[in-house]
Fold:
Amino acid sequence: MTENNVFIKIENYNEILDVLDLFKKKLHDTQNTLDEIVKIRIEEEEEINSWKANLEQVQNEINKVSKNLFEMNN
Amino acid sequence: MEETFFVKIDDPNSIRIKLLESSKLILHTIRIEKKLEDIRKRKLSQITVLKTHTKELEFLMARFEELLPHQELFKKEVDTIKKSLKKTVEVKDKKVKGKVVEAKEVQVKSKIVEMSKEKPKEVDKISSALAEIEKKLRSLQ
Structure:
């Protein structure tokens, strides 16, 4: 690859700087949104886990009740 | 007339407690379900925001590329495209002269192409954009 000098018009250069600045800001916003999504996902996972734990507990209680009744029948 | 039988429950309180606890847990579960609905709504709205950000980033990147001098890059791009075209023509010639195995390969490739045609258009666009960027990177290296 030959290395030649590249010149940019000054007005383009200023606009490039503006675009870059905007790009950085937007990237920052995107990162924040992504962080928020990750947080929400963790929250969702926690809720699903407690849901699962609750159901398991209900199952245990019902099993105990069923066992009691069954033992009485015998 | 059928006779009625009764079964004695030894510890009715404990059974009652267990059933009440189960009801309590079921109510908790319903509450969690409502929470999950809310969480999913929030997640969807954040994903929409993320999509908008990505689109804006794409636009800014395009503008950035527009502003940068691309005359030199364009020439190089044309050269690399010409070179890759030459290579593909050579490969095709070899295939015409080639063996049955190569013919099978072509069949498999055509099947892959058919399968890729079935993909959504947006994915195709993104993949072609990626390929273009990769080409540009290779020509610059």
